[in-house]
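quick one before i forget lol
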Amino acid sequence: MMTTDRFRGPRARVAQTFAARVTATCIAALLAVPLASAPAFAKASIAQYDAPKYPAGFTHFDYADPNASSDGTLSFQNYDEAQSYDSLNPFLTRGSPAPDILHLMFDTLMQRSWDELASEYALIADDVEVAPDGMSAAFHIDPRARFSNGDPITADDVKYSFDTLSSPHASPLYNSQFAVITRATVLDGSRVRFDFRHPQRDAPLIAGDLPVFSRKWAMQANGTRTPFDQLTNVPPVASGPYLIEQRKNDTQIVYRRNPAYWAASLPSRRGMYHFARVAFKLYHDHYTQLESLKALDTDVMVEYSSMQWARRYIGKNFDNGKLQRHLFADHGAQMQGMMFNTRKAMFSDVRVRHALALAFDYDWLNRMTFYGQYQRTNSYFDDSPFAARGMPSDAELTLLEPYRASLPAAVFGPMVKQADTIAPHTLRDNLRVARGLLAEAGWTVRDGQLRDAQGDPMSIEIIDDQPGMDRVLLPYMRNLQLLGVDAHMREIDSALYQKRIDNFEFDMTTFVYQRVTIPGSELERRFGSAAASQVGSENYPGVKSPAVDALVRAVIHATTLAELETATHALDRVLINGYYLVPEYFAPDTRIAYQSPLGYPPVTPVSYQCEDWIVSYWYRKTPTAAANAAAAK
């Protein structure tokens, strides 16, 4: 397993892979470009608020390099935490899907750009028309669109894909993602309409995020159909750019670029997928992964461990220039922290949660363990315009005032900065404040243990399924014990871990909320009161707050960017001061080591999932270019 400082969370790979395709769940006031008004090579785009960044007639995204060479093989390692795979269907909960198969073999109706807040451009759909009342959106399928078997992609295929992903046969993640859509209706052979539950402004973009696959994928030679939830080892009839070329075993797979991929010259695809082949080798541990890179057996590795990056990326191939290591700017932070299950009586008081958060000594951890590579998380929307700062504005106060009586007073003051231990501040000072908060909440130390008014001790089990996170948890538990808390860690199997958190059977656990480009309807799933009692929902901490519910609604119904920022700022203040988790840290950069013959575009996207960025936009330099680069060093 991977030793990491950055926990990816339950269902992380499914969620991250899908998120990499859609970039975010967005709040969008949409601009539809009519089919007749745009040139044939750029027929449609929809965007948030104003016009899309890229005008009609654009040739490629700024972060793509259409002039790069398109040949050779990219030899990649573990795409995620999976050490093997046993499924070719990325839409199921059962089994472990082949690495990156969703990204490489399935296109969506439209393509999100990675350098805007929320815009989509023509891909399978070459036009979209949003109804004036916002209750539906009709997509026109590009007549050139083809599956890998040569069949045209039709409106029937789009409806089949939606109906399948919305059914119990697919992962609940997709049903949740497309929950705003009530049905898909075929208007004719090339048009399909999506009807929405309500005029939610992000709904047309969510519909544009739909992955499309052929109904023939499930068809057997005798004419019978394999149930979708049992369709695990049949190669997909692809809508995306790659095909499966070779499967050696359950740890290796090679994808081959489809020479007949119809969308290669679209503006949303030019400068992408430069590798003729993408090969994955899945290793059983982080040590072997790194050694394979150092031996030049694989081409590239994304590093999630600060200690490994600081100490182990050395050796002769780094010295002689055959291997490079580089930091790439990575804007927009994930909220990672140690999450409280507020359904537990001992965590029901915000003063208790605040006190336990004060025991986390981030500054010591970053200095002694992480080699100063991280920054402290102070917001659910850190490193973005949606993070609250300073005092609340008049517009924020308008949203907050109706709930003043139920909110901590700190919500109405300066945005809280997590307690530090940088001189003159000390951990001893923080623990002293923590002890006072605990006493106010009725918890005092007796007989060497922190006890409530009934004499029951506070005992906290922190569960995890990530090897390496003990470096974070053990120092924290030591500090909790200084407060008299009986804190202990339990590392469990990933399947059992998933079951326990889905059923809210935990005290604390390390968790990360995957970042989104723009906050939107995912907030209902993460923090809405209704989701708090739904088994398997994303509201793992059990947030039940009328103020949070109201602010989430304000986010979703925002009609301008200013309204959106006001609502997220107010929500951020309430969540941070609610201490539903102990904020940890985020990496401002992505750490990537790679063989020197690999190249990347001069422009880095604003928002990206790094593994997909490498597969999608990197390339193998021509021998001349590689030689010139080496000579210049």
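fyi The longest strand covers residues 181-188.
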